[in-house]
Every structure is written in C-alpha cells, then in structure tokens.
C-alpha cells in the first residue's frame, strides 16, 4: 500500500495525546500507562527514550534511522527479533504479517525494519489488542501516546483503506 499525497495532512494529526518533548519524563509517561497494558513503541528515538526510563516496551518497531539519518539501534534486551522490509511512504503486506506475528509472541519482541517504520503505527493500531498503549514520535513536535480504542482502530483502518 502506498501513501498518496492527499493523505499526508491526515497523518499530521496525532492518533492520541501529543506530549511536547520537554514534558516527556518517566513519571509523565508511567502515569498515563494503565497497569498491565501492552506497551508498543514505533521509532528508534521513542524506543530508546522508553528504555532509558527503565520501561521495556512489549513490542518495539525500529529501523536504525532518525529523520532519515543512520543511527545505532536502541540498546536493550529482547527475547525475539523479527525483520521486515517496508519502503518509505508504504505499508507492505510483509510488515503487516510480521506485526501480527509479533503481537502473538512472548514479549518483548523487536521488529527491525529494512526501510522506514513511520507508517507502521497504522497496522499496529489496527491489530493491537484493546489493552495497548502505542507510543510514537511526531516529528519536531513531541511524543504521541495512544490508548487503543475502537475509534483509534477505525481511524487507522480508514487511512489504510484509502491507501492504494
């Protein structure tokens, strides 16, 4: 699935609560994550920040890039590492399949994406269970914290269905 230009403005609107970088602390994040929630991070900087807070995300989706610049993968121990290919501005069937597989495994799981992971927030929102919290970066703005709801799931499905 390719992202058409016409959908880009929709993706600039966060799927959840946008927290300015300056207000992202261990306690401000921990306070917003319900006990027992499945925590999913999409993005290297977001994953690294959660790990630095001592919070190990159940599912981590990273690509060793930040704003298209190469970077080291976030340090951290994961039980399982999966890989997939996902070019920029696309969501591949392979990446959807790997996300679905990862969500059924013993956590923590890390998916290393060959390409770009940004749009993978959408299939994560479609397939993550209701007790999930998704964290991802909003470029030059901050961190988005999404509590999975049917409304979020439907919005993600709608965007994906609009992609060709």
UniProtKB/TrEMBL annotation:
Protein name: GTP-dependent dephospho-CoA kinase
Catalysed reactions, as listed in the record: 3'-dephospho-CoA + GTP = GDP + CoA + H(+)
Residues noted as binding GTP in the record, renumbered to the chain: 44, 63, 117
Organism: Nitrosotalea devaniterrae
Keyword field: Coenzyme A biosynthesis, GTP-binding, Kinase, Nucleotide-binding, Transferase
Pathway info: Cofactor biosynthesis; coenzyme A biosynthesis
GO BP terms in the entry: coenzyme A biosynthetic process
Enzyme class per UniProt: transferase
Organism lineage: Archaea, Nitrososphaerota, Nitrososphaeria, Nitrosotaleales, Nitrosotaleaceae
Similarity annotation: Belongs to the GTP-dependent DPCK family.
A molecular-function term among this protein's GO annotations: kinase activity
HAMAP family the record matches: Dephospho_CoA_kinase_GTP_dep
Chain's role: Catalyzes the GTP-dependent phosphorylation of the 3'-hydroxyl group of dephosphocoenzyme A to form coenzyme A (CoA).
EC number(s) given by UniProt: 2.7.1.237
């Amino acid at each position: 699935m390719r992202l058409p230009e016409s959908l880009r403005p929709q993706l600039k609107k966060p799927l959840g609560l946008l927290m300015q970088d300056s207000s992202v602390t261990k306690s401000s994040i921990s306070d917003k994550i319900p006990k027992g929630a499945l925590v999913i991070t999409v993005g290297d900087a977001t994953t690294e920040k959660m790990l630095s807070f001592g919070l190990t995300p159940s599912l981590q989706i990273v690509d060793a890039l930040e704003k298209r610049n190469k970077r080291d993968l976030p340090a951290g121990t994961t039980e399982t590492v999966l890989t997939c290919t996902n070019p920029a501005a696309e969501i591949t069937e392979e990446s959807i399949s790997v996300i679905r597989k990862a969500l059924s495994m013993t956590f923590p799981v890390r998916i290393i994406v060959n390409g770009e992971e940004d749009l993978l927030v959408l299939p994560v929102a479609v397939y993550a269970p209701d007790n999930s919290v998704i964290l991802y970066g909003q470029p030059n703005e901050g961190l988005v914290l999404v509590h999975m709801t049917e409304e979020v799931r439907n919005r993600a499905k709608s965007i994906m269905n609009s992609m060709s």
